[in-house]
Amino acid sequence: MGQHHNLGVLLHNLKLYEESKKEFCEAIRINPNFAEAKHNLEVSWQDNPYLGEANMPHKPKIEGENPLSEG
Q: Fewest beta carbons less than 10 Å away: which of 12, 14, 34, 70?
């Protein structure tokens, strides 16, 4: 899980957006509550000059409890 996320960050920093998205998706598949990977997946969509936010098929839905919410 962490390895896929870390590799996704590295690939994103190298502007290899498609490859980074695959790694973030794998991290999310392993742990569906991995909020940071979901956030970084969205950032990869937005930063990709060929896709961008306008072409994003859907905004990733973050499921699970929000650790910052009062409860």
A: 70
- Residue 48 has a pLDDT of 77
Q: Helix or strand or coil: residue 68?
A: coil
Assess if residue 63 is contained within a domain: no
pTM as predicted: 0.68
Residues (pLDDT < 70) of the chain are 1, 51-71
For residues 12 and 22, the answer to whether their CB atoms sit within 8 Å is: no
How many domains is the chain partitioned into structurally?
A: 1
Cα–Cα distance, 70 to 15 (Å, whole number) = 37
- Domain of residue 12, residue span: 2-55
